[in-house]
Design brief:
The protein is mostly helical and 401 residues long. The protein contains 21 helices and no strands. The protein has helices spanning 3-8, 14-21, 43-56, 60-73, 78-90, 94-107, 112-124, 128-141, 146-158, 162-175, 180-192, 196-209, 214-226, 230-265, 269-282, 287-299, 303-316, 321-333, 337-350, 356-368, 371-390. The longest helix has 36 residues, at 230-265.
């Protein structure tokens, strides 16, 4: 806990501040995970858990800097290597993706996620024989693996095995109706067999699930042009250009994002602030950077700027559970306990698997002397943390244009 923040906190909140000063599980969380500038003890675990949580919810650009930091402390952690490999693959950094997946296999030769991730890299780089062997090995280890089935369907598309690809994609959709990649592979197969209108419908479904999916946007432009709908094709072309523009912005700020989180985690808050401010100038509509700015301003003892940053984050992304949790902590430190509880409860409602709000609620109830509620929140927190540590990381199949 930053001393300037702690000195202004009311005396009755001292117990809660003591609880929070170590952060969950004895260490601080990185930006947006509930830290306010605490001891560096336990940092690798905090970065690891934050990175994996963000990865699982699909926030890849948010996950990468945390996972990169965790990898420095645990270079053979299979979960980190798989997640980073998937992030690299989804941003077309094929060499880094392959290195990460191979390192994960070296650390754990039976790792299915790493083998599937490597198969995806091989498909996207045209090494189809190697991809086929990797998928076959996964099926030997886990005959019913749905990700292997979908990767096999993607490989079938690339090999021109249209009927097999369509059947595999439909089977994947039956098991995971909200899988953007399953609909994408089905769209590719339908396009291959000349079912243009059906293919366009599948690509629209992909875009509904994953609005910035570059492959789906690209194919929608082509398919609607072939269907003689130039106005619709033009609208999708604009959406594609906007998505590509955002990807280019992210490429420009990626290193700054990693440096910012590293600086925050070593408690160099002025350096972190400078990096986050640079990102905000480059990408003023990125809600995540305002979340990080809010955490950094809190660490610097500047609650007014912290609130402005968090308000901006929530204006852009009203269901950002981490911003809601940070806002709850900000209210608590200002002795606005009802507002704090309300904000923390909203964070839980958005993501029932998010452990940290329960930790902060426990601190408030402990400070109020509400022992039963304190124990209830800590029990939920411990259960969620235990579940998170035990969950396996499954790298999802990827499809390219």
């Amino acid at each position: 806990m930053n001393l300037r923040v702690a000195r202004r906190a009311p005396a009755w909140l001292a117990a809660a501040i003591c609880l929070w000063s170590c952060g969950p599980a004895g260490g601080p969380a990185a930006p947006g995970a509930g830290s306010a500038g605490s001891s560096a003890v336990g940092l690798p675990a905090a970065s690891l858990e934050t990175g994996l949580q963000l990865f699982r919810r699909g926030d890849l650009k948010g996950a990468e800097p945390h996972l990169a930091g965790a990898l420095k402390q645990a270079p053979r952690d299979r979960r980190v290597l798989e997640a980073l490999g998937s992030i690299y693959a989804r941003s077309d950094r094929w060499r880094q993706a392959e290195e990460s997946f191979r390192a994960a296999l070296a650390a754990e030769p039976s790792a299915i996620g790493a083998r599937l991730g490597l198969a995806a890299v091989c498909i996207d780089t045209g090494r189809y024989d190697e991809a086929r062997a990797l998928i076959a090995e996964v099926r030997r280890l886990d005959p019913g693996n749905p990700a292997a089935r979908l990767k096999g369907a993607l490989l079938d598309v690339r090999l021109g095995r249209t009927a097999e690809a369509e059947a595999g994609a439909r089977e994947a959709i039956a098991g995971q109706p909200s899988s953007a990649e399953a609909h994408y592979v089905l769209g590719l197969a339908l396009e291959r067999r000349g079912a243009i209108a059906e293919a366009a419908a599948e690509m629209r479904r992909v875009q509904e699930i994953s609005s910035a999916h570059p492959g789906a946007l690209s194919h929608l432009v082509t398919l609607l042009t072939r269907l003689g709908r130039p106005a619709e094709a033009a609208r999708w072309r604009m959406a594609q250009q906007e998505a590509l523009s955002r990807l280019h912005v992210e490429e420009r700020v990626r290193d700054h994002r990693i440096k910012a989180v590293e600086a925050f985690n070593r408690e160099d808050y002025p350096a972190a602030l400078g990096e986050f401010q640079l990102i905000a100038r480059e990408d003023p509509d990125d809600p995540q950077v305002y979340l990080h700015l809010g955490s950094t301003y809190l660490a610097l003892g500047n609650p007014e700027e912290a609130r402005r940053a968090l308000d901006r984050c929530l204006a852009l992304d009203p269901r950002n559970e981490r911003a809601l949790a940070e806002m709850g902590r900000l209210h608590a430190l200002a002795n606005r306990l009802d507002e704090a509880i309300d904000s923390l409860r909203k964070a839980v409602a958005v993501n029932p698997e998010f452990a940290e709000p329960h930790y902060y609620l426990a601190g408030i109830y402990r400070a109020r002397g509400e022992t039963d509620r304190y124990r209830e929140e800590m029990k939920i927190f411990d259960e969620l943390r235990s579940r998170s540590r035990g969950s396996a990381l499954e790298v999802q199949p990827e499809g390219g244009p």
